[in-house]
Amino acid sequence: MANSASGMAVDDECKLRFMELKAKRSHRFIVFKIEEKIQRVVVETVGESQQSYDDFSASLPADECRYAVYDFDFTTDENIRSKMLYASSKDRFRRELDGVQVELQATDPSEMSLDIVKERAF
């Protein structure tokens, strides 16, 4: 089905490869291109998980347009990746613990003092 704004359909393989990158992290990057003859966005290149950013850059043509997704793996001094994992898993975990009365989210020890816990509980 064509996109009403541009007339370009998105090939199912584009969605499949993106889900593999997102869920399984089986690819480092994906490069997509528009095939004008068939009026579709298609997968042009799939980078293996061990490939680098330089490999990704080299896969892009110098004088043509492309769409691309790169799985940039990073951590910071604050370990943002861990925080994001906990934040995205919280709702499901909480639903599994039927009966929890009070929820307190703390990003550092000052946000979980006994006074704050008591205030939330009453």
From TrEMBL:
The answer on whether this UniProt entry bears the keyword Flavoprotein reads no
Q: What one GO molecular function would you report for this record?
A: actin binding
Keywords of this entry: Actin-binding
Chain ranges of the ADF-H domain: 7-122
For biological process, the GO terms are: actin filament depolymerization
Question: Which one Pfam family would you cite for this protein?
Answer: Cofilin_ADF
Q: Which domain of life is it from?
A: Eukaryota
Q: Which GO terms describe its cellular component?
A: actin cytoskeleton
Q: Which family does it belong to?
A: Belongs to the actin-binding proteins ADF family.
- The entry's protein name is ADF-H domain-containing protein
The organism of origin for this protein: Salix udensis
